[in-house]
Every structure is written in structure tokens, then in C-alpha cells.
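Re: your question about Calcineurin-like phosphoesterase domain-containing protein

S., sorry for the slow reply, the queue was backed up all week. Below is exactly what I fed in.
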Amino acid sequence: VRSGHFLQLSDIHLDPWYNASMGRECFCNPPTGAEELAKCAASATGSTLGQHGCDAPAALLRSVLAAAAARAPPGGYDWVLITGDYTRHGMEEHQSPRSKAIVRGIMRQAVGAVREYFPDVALHHGLGYEPYILGNNDFTADYNETVTDPRNGTNPWFSFLAPSAAASAAALAASSHEQRPLAFDDAEWSPLDDQATFVYGGYGMRKLTHELYMISLNTVMYSTNYHWEHDPEEDPFRQLRWLTRALEWLRKTNRDGSKVKALVTGHIPPTTDHFKFKALWRDRFVKAYLAVIGNYTDVIAAQLFAHMHCDTFRLPPTDVAGPPVFITSSISPVFDNNPSFRVWKYSGPAVVDYTMYSADIESAPRQDLSFEPLYTATEAYGLKAMTTEEWRTKVADKLATDDKVWEQYMSRLWQRGSGPAVQANTKSMAYRRKAVCAVKNIRRGDFEACVAAQDA
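Result:
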């Protein structure tokens, strides 16, 4: 049984226009008017390493990567996983004929920095090479994804981001007279036949170890913020059909005595957020996704997501089996969270623990950040395993009744032990009730019923 560690980074939101002399009033970017300039400068901290309320400068990303390298466990990391949103918020404010190239350039700059600090570690941010686990900001405008039918060819944006994969897909189609990555009904089909599925639908599968695989999903079109001109498609990009076949392929692999599982990864989690308790996915897609996951829990090791800029988790419904949805926080401190990264420990086909690292960008010197371990999951919550049952009984069930567990959870949510928002929400019973319902109820109807029962 192979065991080791991997590093998860997310929501980098790299901002090439970050200006330390500008504050959160103007998103740490120089405004156009003189009056705005004075107001913006007055709110600035002057830190080149980032400010709350703004996205990440290159110096902050490098500080995170240096800390992650220094904090690497014995033996180092076996791979680095990036779960989307490489690019800063508000790219639509910088529209130009070069917008596509600028977005791709920011994404490549972020990936290049990771490779610089981890040159000998496998980098998995999609299919492992050019492709990405895309966040909603990894387009020329927020959620600006064009849904295409993979049966009609590759997607223009995915192909632009990953030209080598696009070339590989084109060569494969030309040589076999079919789009092999989408030949789901072929008896010999394998999700590992080609790395080109990304350019068709923004998803893919990679082998990590002999016992562990990674499935990366495209989640942007499932979002409640995604604009459909007409009724949403039943299965955009045919992704859920592909996911079903990929998981079935893993199950068949186990029939020869193997014990393999997959990490199901994506950017936007199928749940309610932790700010305004808004549904992040359309309900129809949540139900369809859970139906697939529930049928293949025997080959799913964990569900790893991000997007929310906070450190939390979600439990599957009691009538749907499956592992917890683990949601990691961000590098960008834009939502008043502190920058962080997560180190996972795995053994065989299972994840067995994680440690969160964070740094306080307000109290640290301007030219130095000290990333310290915030907590380790099994130690902090007394978990024997990273299973749904353990997280339900040891954590979720106690959030409503045990003040100590609740306060610990809140101090870790945004990696800040203090601050007006943290203090207010920690003391607010209304917020607490909604937060507990969100943790326990992925489906929107279940969440609303839970809140209504608490308020009754």
C-alpha cells in the first residue's frame, strides 16, 4: 500500500495589476479619478504581499509556494492539485482585443510559479499538463463559459487554453475517424485512452498511483450564476454521462482483485455557500450529480472542491451514500479570509487526514508572511477516519450544541480567529442555524426544510 502526501492550492486569483499603494476601496488597483485615488490610497496597508478585500499579487503567491515547499512533509509531495480560479476577479473590467491571451497568460504565470517551486513534483490541475480545473473566473468574464456539444468537436476556449491537448485530439480524430475520448459505448473504451477529453468538455481523468485516480470536473455551467439563454441542458458537455462511464470503468478494474478509487475534484461545490447561504449549483444538477456519486461510492475516495474562500465541508444526504465534500480555502484574501493551503495525507486508495496552513496578512511584516499549521483534521476533531459517519457524529452534529466545537469551526472557516465578521457570526444564532443546516444538507430543499424547522 503506497502512502504519501499531496498539496492542494486553490483560488489563487492572481492579479497582475495589484498596487500596494492602493487599498480595498478600489480593489488595490489604481482608479481613474483624483477623488477616488485619494480615498483608495487612504485605505491601503502598503503591503506588497496582499491586503484583505483584494486579490493576490504575485508576491503573495510566491510566499505561499515558498511556505508550502518549506512545510513539505518527509518525502515531499507526490503531486500538487490546483482546484481552479487562477485569474483575478473582474476581468471584464479589462476587456480588450487581447483579453483571451491575457487570461491565458495569467493562468500560465500561476502554473509557472508552482512549477518553479516544485519542479520535480507532478502538477495536476486538470489532466496534468496544459489543461486546468477551471473556476468561474478562468474566462474572459465571470462565468463566461460557452457550452458546446462534444459530439460536434472540441470547445474553442478549452482548445485555446490547451493547444497541445487540442492538437492531440485533432490527430486522434483524424487517424481513427472518430472522437475517441467520447466513444462511451465502445466496449474497449477507457477514460485513460487519451488526455484530450479536456478540450471537448473541460473534464478528464488521470492515474495518480496504482490505487488512486483523479477525476477533474467542469462545474461552471452547473452554477446558479451561469446564464442559460434557454432552459439548461440535461447534461451539459455530456459530463455526467462521461463521469458514470469513468466510475464504471474503475469498478470493472476492481473485479480483477484491484482496489482502486478516485478523487473527484472540481471548483464549485454542489452545495449552499457560507456567506449568504445561496445555492451554488442549480438543483437539477445537484440531484443528477448525487445520483451518480451515490451509485459508485465504492470507487470514490473523496470529493475535493473549493470556490467558497473558506475552509469547510459538506455531508451527502442520509439517503445518498458517499464521502464528504471537502472544501478548501483560498490563496486570495479578497473575502477577508487569510491566505492558506492544504496538505493531504493518503494511504492506498484513501485520504486519511489533512493539515491547513495559514498566515495573517494584517499582523505580518510587509515583506514576510509566516505560514503556520492551523489545525490537523483528525487531531482537531478526534476523527478516526475521514468518513461521512465520523464527520457527522464528531463534527456536524456537535456544531449546533457544542459551543467549543462551533467556535473552533468558526475560527478556521476564514483562517481568522478574530475580526468583526467572525465575532458577529460566531455569536449569531441565526447564522449558526443556517451554517449547521448548510453543512448537513447539500440539496437545496433539504437545507430550506432544515432552516424552517430550526426557526419554528
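The radius of gyration is 21 Å. The chain has a mean pLDDT of 90.

Happy to talk it through on Thursday.
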